[in-house]
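Quiz preparation item.
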């Protein structure tokens, strides 16, 4: 195997592939990157058995062949080549030889026969479908709800992000049973039935891949596997063959009190209140429609207490209610709006947070009752 290429291009591809590689001490080959030259392209592969990636980059003076090397070692080497524009890679017995104008390096290879096969699916496979979406839109949908997912493997259906279509929207949902986030992304022309459940532990890798992409991606899926691909990238991950809970029945539709205020103002007071909150991160809200005041209080018998007030637009009935401040801050951190709307039903019923002007994001959070 031999090739010449631009250093920055191979470095970017190897860094991305290394993020997908495994950290399994019993299967050290999962920490490897497989490099294969085919004609005028270098194919870079890595996998952790849950996810797998293939990236193609153009090369010059290629000689077909393949080799597996430790991903971390290759990333560290390429990242520390500061002044080199081009690099040559070639096999040298059981080593990968890397040469630039000023350096010559050997990296020990790993057994090729141990490297796992990355599964492939296409539209010819039974019960397989696809759609196209902008990478930034898919990424936004995932990032908007990811934080609300459960992380336990005991209930895999809710330790996940659920993606389905409704009308012309692609809907992303995550919950841990104490809170629920829903994000809608408009996808004009979407006519297919989409039901995808992506495990929580696979979302981070998918987001890392989408962070590196521009333009439109193809999404191919069946009941066991999902693929995100472009002309030069193929990323596959395992999905859950199951049924997501019917979450819509728990979303309130009638409200007694409504609050509209600046997002940053509320975030600042919540952060201040958490300094004095207890081990449950409990903060207490007192909504006063007659004076348009929101009072926040927190108390920790070992530290002290905090009381803050905020002018806001409040309509409806007075209300006192308590929440886990972290759950509120998590939502506000991903909501890309200057103002927010908070809708309340009762002191023991869920709160809905959304944008005053858009219906693309909503967040449900249960109060603390103790």
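Solution:
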């Amino acid at each position: 195997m031999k090739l010449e290429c631009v250093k920055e291009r191979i470095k970017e591809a190897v860094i991305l592939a290394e993020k997908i590689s495994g950290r399994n001490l019993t299967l050290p080959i999962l920490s490897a990157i497989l490099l294969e030259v085919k004609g005028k392209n270098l194919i870079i592969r890595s996998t952790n058995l849950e996810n797998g990636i293939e990236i193609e980059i153009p090369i010059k003076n290629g000689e077909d062949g393949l080799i597996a090397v430790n991903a971390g070692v290759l990333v560290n080497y390429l990242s520390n080549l500061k002044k080199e524009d081009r690099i040559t890679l070639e096999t040298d017995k059981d080593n990968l030889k890397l040469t630039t104008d000023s350096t010559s390096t050997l990296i020990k290879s790993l057994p090729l026969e141990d490297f796992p096969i990355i599964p492939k699916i296409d539209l010819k496979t039974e019960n397989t479908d696809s759609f196209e979406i902008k990478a930034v839109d898919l990424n936004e949908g995932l990032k908007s709800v990811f934080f609300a997912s459960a992380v336990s493997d005991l209930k895999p259906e809710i330790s996940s992000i659920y993606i389905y279509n409704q009308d012309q929207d692609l809907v992303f949902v995550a919950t841990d049973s104490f809170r629920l986030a829903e994000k809608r992304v408009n996808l004009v022309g979407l006519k297919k039935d989409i039901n995808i459940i992506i495990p929580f532990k696979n979302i981070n890798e998918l987001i890392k891949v989408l962070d590196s992409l521009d333009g439109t991606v193809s999404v191919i899926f069946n009941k066991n596997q999902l693929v995100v691909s472009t002309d030069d990238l193929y990323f596959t991950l395992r999905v859950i063959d199951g049924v997501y809970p019917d979450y819509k029945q728990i979303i309130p539709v009638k409200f007694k009190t409504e609050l509209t205020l600046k997002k940053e103002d509320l975030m600042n007071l919540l952060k201040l209140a958490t300094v004095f909150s207890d081990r449950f991160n409990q903060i207490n809200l007192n909504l006063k429609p007659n004076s348009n005041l929101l009072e926040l209080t927190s108390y920790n018998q070992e530290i002290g207490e905090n009381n803050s007030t905020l002018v806001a637009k409040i309509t409806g009935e007075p209300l006192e209610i308590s929440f886990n401040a972290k759950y509120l801050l998590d939502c506000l951190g991903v909501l890309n709006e200057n103002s927010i709307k908070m809708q309340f039903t009762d002191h023991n019923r869920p709160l809905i947070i959304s944008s005053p002007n858009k219906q693309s994001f909503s967040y449900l959070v249960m109060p603390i009752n103790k």
